[in-house]
Amino acid sequence: MPSSDTLDAIETAETIDDIRSRFFPVRLPGAGSGVGRCVDEVTFREAVGQIYASVFPDRDAYPYRPKSEELVTQYRTLHQERILMEDGEGNLMGWLKGRMADPDTFYLGTSGMLPEYRAQRVAALCYVKLLEYLRALGYERVTSEHHPSNRTAMIFQLKHGFSIEGMSLDERWGPMVKMVRFFDKDRQDEFDRRFGFEQYPKGV
Questions:
Q1: Handedness of CA 169, 151, 62, 1 (dihedral sign)
Q2: Distance CA 4, CA 45 (A)
Q3: pLDDT for 129-162, tens place per residue?
Q4: Collapsing DSSP states into helix, strand and coil, what is residue 166?
């Protein structure tokens, strides 16, 4: 659970679990009336580990090294969400996972969908529901990072109101395009002003 002004505001009305229950689990179209549900870290890792290589067949996993238990404990105090998307028979189709980056920002860290389910648009519905949920929690912005060649992911996010914020270089993942989605119009207006986007038509 996050220890922040965001959490203080939430606790005065509803807990995160209360708000989450208004959005998840979510019924998904196609795939035999599947479901998107929030799970714990152990369940998430076990499930995603079974299909990761099928979703990303050409990607090498970054080598795991033992972490400081103290740092891991601190990391676990952050607000995190792990969503599994399953078909009507309980078979895993894909996942979404993210965490609090700061009291204003939720970072979408990883997502994936098996190729045979990508045309059914189940991820889009789950994605929209997640954004609605994060806004209800009190976050002001959502961020993500993608490799420049991952056009599908970036186009998907642009269609869902994200903007390109910049680039970063990382020895683990290489060059990454940074994306941001604002929930408040004043934040989007200030972003457009600072980056000089006022002259471009919106929604084109």
A1: positive
A2: 27
A3: 999 999 999 999 999 999 999 999 999 999 999 9
A4: strand
Give the contacts of 104 (CB within 8 A, at least 6 positions apart).
6, 139, 140, 141
Please report, for the chain, the start and end positions of each structural domain, with discontinuous segments joined by +. Answer: 5-195
Candidates 3.40.630.30, 3.20.20.190, 3.40.47.10, 3.40.50.300; correct CATH number of 5-195? Answer: 3.40.630.30
Question: Token digits for 91?
Answer: 């078979």
pTM value is: 0.83
What confidence score (pLDDT) does residue 60 get? 65
- Residue 106: name the closest of 179, 56, 49 by CA: 179
Q: How many other CB atoms sit within 10 Å of the CB of residue 170?
A: 9
Between 2 and 138, whose confidence is greater? 138
Burial status of residue 54 (CB atoms within 10 A of its CB: 0-12, 13-18, 19 or more): exposed
> What are the φ and ψ backbone dihedral angles of 145, each rounded to 5 degrees?
-135, 145
* Secondary structure (3-state) at 56: coil
In tens, the pLDDT along 170-183 reads 888 899 999 999 99
